[in-house]
Amino acid sequence: MTRVAAVLSALVLTSLPLAAPAYAMVDDKDVARMVSFGGNCPKCDLSGRRLQNARFAGANFAGASLVNADLRGATFLGSNFAGSKLMNADLRGAEIAASNFAGANLQNASLDGVEAPGVNFAKAVLNNVTARGAELPSANLVGASMVSSNFTGAELPGSRLVDVDARETNFSNAELTGAAMTNARLDRATFRGADLDGANLVGASLVGADLRGASMDGANLSGTNLSGVHGLRQDQLESACGDDRTRLPAPNLKLRACRGGRNIVIIRSPRPPEALRPPAPPRPPEPIRPPEPPRPPR
């Protein structure tokens, strides 16, 4: 994180001369030199450009198109890329500080090793993204779509993943300590070896998710649907809590209830209903006896 700290300090020095329109013009798709961008360039088209190690400082690229752009090692300082198009872009090793990517489309983008503390990806499209080892502490991912993405080993402590759609996404060995994940759709996601200590999963759906080896100390599972979860053991639930809406995957698992910050009672997973027995066949009617013949008179 040392490089991010350095670029944050540099932002103060670079912000003053950037009030004019964007001062870097890139006409050649193969750019061999370092390129700097600042000022206003909304809806600019830089699709397919080679922009390795480019520097965006105080730049407004809202709605810009950088589809298939090569942005490896690029630096984004205090810049606005809200609603921009970055599909299939390569941002491996990029550094992002105090920048806004809300509503941006990064589908199929490469974000491996990105350093982006506190980045704003609210309502962004991050489907099929690779972000292995990305550093995203305190990131804002509220309402983002992250379906079938790879966040293996990513650092997301304190991040906000409220209302995200991250079905079938891989969070193996990711750090999600204290993450806010309320109402998140995490069905069939993988959390093998992930750190979910203190995570808020109230109302989240993890149907069919893989929780083998995940740490969940202090996690709030109130109203969480864990039906069909794989690899969940009782020892993982000892320090977590839930409520009567929590759905556990097996009848032998139990969960303490969250009340006023204390664990009070035991909530057990519902047992499967017993098979209905077929109704007993009706008894056959008793045979009708014929009337006795009249007795002869005396």
From TrEMBL:
User: Which residue intervals are annotated with compositional bias (Pro residues) in the record?
Assistant: 270-298
Against Gene3D superfamilies, the record matches this protein to: E3 ubiquitin-protein ligase SopA
Q: What is this protein called?
A: Low-complexity protein
Signal peptide range in chain numbering: 1-24
**InterPro entries given in the database record:** 5peptide_repeat (IPR001646), Pentapeptide-BTB/POZ_domain (IPR051082)
Q: This protein's superkingdom?
A: Bacteria
Write out the entry's keywords from A to Z.
Signal
Q: Which residues form a coiled coil?
A: none
Residues annotated as region Disordered?
269-298
Q: Kindly name one Pfam family recorded for this protein.
A: Pentapeptide
